[in-house]
Amino acid sequence: MSVIGRSVPRLEDPPLLRGEGAFAADISFPRQLHMRVVRAEMAHARLLAVDVSAALALPGVVAVWTGEDVATIPPIPFRATKLKGLEPYCQPILARGRVRYVGEPVAVVFAENAALAEDAADLVVADLEELPALLDAAAPPRDFDATHATEPAILRKSYGDVEAGFAAAHAVLDLDLSIGRHSGVPLETRGAIARYDAASDTLELHGTAKKQHWNRDEIARLLGRSPTSVHLFEGHVGGGFGVRGELYPEDLLVCLAALRLRRPVKWIEDRREHLVATNHSRQQRHRLRAAVDAEGRLIAIDNVFFHDQGAYVRTHGARVADMSAGLLLGPYAVPAYRATGHFRLTNKTPAATYRAPGRYEGTFVRERLMDAIAARLGLDRVEVRRRNFVPVSAMPFTRPLDALGTDVVLDSGDYALLLDKALARFGWEARQADIARRRAAGESVGLGLGFFVEKSGLGPSDGVRMSVDPTGVVELVTGAASVGQGVETALAQIAADALGVDYRCVRVVRGQTNRIEFGSGAHASRVTVMSGSATHLAGLALRDLALGTAATLLQAPKESLTIVDGMVCRADGPALPIGEVARALAAGTKLSRERAVPGLTTEGWFHSDHMTYPYGVHLAQVALDRMTGAVAVEHYLVAYDVGRAVNPKLVEGQIIGGFAQGLGGALFEEFRYDERGQPLSTTLADYLMPTIAEMPPLDVLVTEDAPSPLNPLGVKGAGEGGTNAVGAAIASAIDDALGNKGLVTRLPVTPREVLRLLGEIEA
Amino acid sequence: MKPPPFAYHDPSTLEEAISLLSTLPNARPLAGGQSMMPMLNMRFAQPDHLVDLNRIAGLDGVTVEPDGALTIGAMARQRVLEQHPEVARRCPLMVEALAQVGHRQTRNRGTIGGSLCHLDPAAELPLVAAAMEAVVRVAGPNGQRDIAFADFAQGYMTPEMEPEELLVAVRIPAQPAGAGHCFLEYARRHGDFAIASVAVMLVPDAVGRIAEARVALGGVGAVPLRLPEAEAALRGAPDVSRAVAATKTLEPMEDALVPAWYRRHLAGVLLGRALVIAQSRMGRA
User: Fold this and answer.
1) Nearest-CB residue to A270 (from B1, B4, B5)
2) Hey, which of A271, A498, A536, B112 has its CA 20 to 30 A from B250?
């Protein structure tokens, strides 16, 4: 029986459960210095001078740098994008001349210990001349500097005749919808520990996550070194969610300091820093117009939106806005579409991707529209969605749009089938009846839904190196990374299945740039699809090599041999441990000389030009407290088709954790600012992440009805479906409780907003 | 988030602690640390000396006085009180409140004395002390003195104590026989400081009418507030709507995240709900 599809225990757990993990703060080197960042305290100001003299005078302080000291280092770059003209908006590693958000690094202190570094940082004085803060991305752009405006780009994507669609419409819907600013707040804050090994002329960066190879290449380029002289190492990562592991100013600063000061340099972000310094996300306002026919079928959508990028363009460029434009339509067939995305800067923390980037936003917007269509035409909300689905007969479905530089081709999916299964599992009909009874008794209760299409498996290529040692242990070296999601276990299962060994015999090496030349890390729900497929191919190739070699050793035709649980078996009984096959291929052996390279080892590469598109539906039941405005989520279902679940328990874990984050954005979490751009959400008492007490009864339905035709395993990514539609489904349910009038137009839905919508109080 | 430099002292007797607080400049006591440590780490508090009370024996007892009142040592952990049978018997209002004090992990360390001295306007235990008409015992270089909690809670996070004094115990009169109580609060998340909170105790006479009503509100003033108008409206033939209407005169503090009107509104909502529950729990004297 294949180990793929079984919820086997995680290989990662033993050290984590014993407290033996190696997170960033656990990593230390002898003679290390501690770095503390001095951050701007105004949202927008001229930076006239920085006085570091008092800080430098403190015993134990080794160096203090300002922007002038690092002026030769280029700003933080962004990854490939088709958009032009973003370069002037990249963030310098330390501010020069102007600060653009509260939290922007202005100076850095290097001292003998972390407390001392913080003492010294308090003594650094930045002379700031305050300028008006721009806080509304939908307001007219201003000057970013003498030659650039605060709108670096307008994204445009379209197909079909939108104007003709509106001219022919039975009804036109016009919505103004906003998503609040929130982001991934991992339990582990960022950390970076750099060490320069002069003996080997190697720069090491520890405590890394997500994008080791790209970051290595960029750090090398920015510091004028060869990539082979820079190595990044990943230990344990306490949550990624998109924000961890991007290249930030602090990463460059510790590397530069290790080179200049010739001592290891450690930086651990504190929580207050994290909430103003690490990427924010999500803030977007959509003015959406849609044309529909008399049956509620979409004819055209005009999606104009304002993306609040914050103060600088970071490593993602305009990816979130790009996906908000290219992936908005989700599961629906729409004859004509036009997106106009105003990509704008404000005086807030820079923004980038957060779990289901552009889709959490887009699904909220699209599904609010579907509810609005139903309300306008007096149709059932579920039926409106059904009528607009891309039918299974149209798969694969090419949409004349692109996202993340690839054409959008929905590879497989039976949306109506999943909707039916989800409604049945949730008990939608029975709950409708129950809700009607409770409403009659005076309660404000409602049901909501959000259907969505995710994307995963972004290409173009992933490779792994797979080897068997003489003890029969399989080493799988991958350029993928782990943010805690179970990469080792999933890849080990795939490797074990292809090769014929116990998955517990597979050691997965990830996130180490000195072990493999190429890698794409962990993001975009791509690891299981891309690295998993590469592992599958490598495993099959290795199996073939093992069988061919064993055929000689066992004196039997290759075709008659099998590998079961690490033993190469002849049909009539005799068997050989796979480690013995590896030994027979070691360098210098007779058999190894017949091959280009010795060893029971191979590489597997998988290439893909298109993403795979998992899909799902969220169903919610809420009750409103008419007096406090509190929203109680009484029941919730996430149904998600992932094509094929390598480890169903890990998929469920992804969905449950992802849901909690989506719930935060729907009801609790928001980075708020006052009118001068001072952040108001700077501790976990003000930035309200849901806790276990806020988690509702949550049901998860994982289906495998639409395997992807784009990879040998049929898998689709599972990382983001739990988050994607939470805002949409909760908003839909609250709106239902309020009488389906389209009142819920903004996330998060706060208790005071609920009171206002209930008309209980003048707010 | 590393604290600024401070000298750490860990006396083993109360006298030693008071002596340290009396002689050292800018010294602060450390009880359970659930507020003090974050304040230190965020550098909101910058004491030169920290006097740790955790090694002083005998400050965490729970004793029943001859009149039935509870005397609780200042260093008694919140979690211990939450599970203590005498507290459950004599002050069920406190047990109901404790379930909403932070989280179990913070209650394992947090102390009753620390909470009363920190005196956050939205904290649960000061509200219980106000409703129960507790008396705090304070020790200083010149001996001990007792202060009614209403006098102790003088201003925003400012107890009526000298810097060299320590709260050593709190005396809580037992809930009268037949009394109905209720503690309710509203916060966005479980365990957060309340946006508004209410503690109610209704004391019946021999025929089951309300002889005495106590209504205390948290989060709506600089300190826990008693609401005499509401209490008067509840005595005898109770007029619940008039009691609730008394919250309309409250003038809560406004901050960037919560407007005053919402706190005032919630105070009325919670009071109405708490009175229903307290009445349902009331018996006869």
Assistant:
1) B1
2) B112
What is the spatial distance between Cα A278 and Cα A687, in angstroms, rounded to a whole number? 14
**Closest residue of B to A750, CA-based?**
B188
Q: How confident is the model at residue A630 (pLDDT cuts 50, 70, 90)?
A: very high
In terms of Cα–Cα distance, which of A685, A686, A276, A116 is closest to B3?
A116
**In which domain, by residue range, is A214 found?**
24-131+189-237+244-277
A312 and A421 housed in the same domain: yes
Greatest Cα pair distance in chain A:
88
Distance (Å) from the C-alpha of residue A118 to the closest C-alpha of chain B? 7
Does the domain at B180-281 match CATH 3.40.50.720? Answer given as no
CB distance from A632 to chain B under 8 Å? Answer: no
Instruction: Tell me whether A683 touches chain B (CB under 8 Å).
Output: yes
CA distance A485 to A494: 15
Q: Do A672 and B257 touch (CB under 8 A)?
A: yes
Q: A81 pLDDT exceeds 90?
A: no
Query: CB of A414 within 8 A of CB of A613?
Result: no
Statement to judge: residues A635 and A752 lie in one domain = yes
If asked whether residues A89 and A229 sit together in one domain, one would say yes
pLDDT band at B284 (very low <50, low <70, confident <90, very high): confident
Give the whole-number percent of chain A exceeding pLDDT 70. Answer: 99
Residue A556 belongs to domain with CATH number: 3.30.365.10
Within 8 A by CB and 6+ apart from A271, the residues are A189, A683, A684, B1
Tell if the CB–CB gap between A694 and B190 is shorter than 8 Å.
yes
Q: Is the peptide bond before A132 cis (omega within 30 degrees of 0)?
A: no
pLDDT tier, A696 (very low <50, low <70, confident <90, very high otherwise)? very high
**What is the reported pLDDT for A763?**
44
CATH code, residues B62-172 = 3.30.465.10
Going by pLDDT thresholds of 50, 70 and 90, the confidence category of residue A82 is: confident
A434 and A545 share a domain? Answer: no
Residues of B engaging A, defined by a Cβ cutoff of 8 Å: 1-5, 42-43, 186, 188-193, 256-257, 259, 261-262, 265-266, 269
CB contact A628 to B (< 8 Å): yes
- Give residue A760's pLDDT: 64
Which has the closest alpha carbon to A614: A418, A357, A404, A450? A418
Q: Are A690 and B43 in contact (CB < 8 Å)?
A: no
pLDDT digits (tens, 9 = 90+) for A272-323: 999 999 999 999 999 999 999 999 999 999 999 999 999 999 999 999 999 9
Does the pTM of the predicted model rise above 0.95?
yes
What is the predicted ipTM? Answer: 0.95
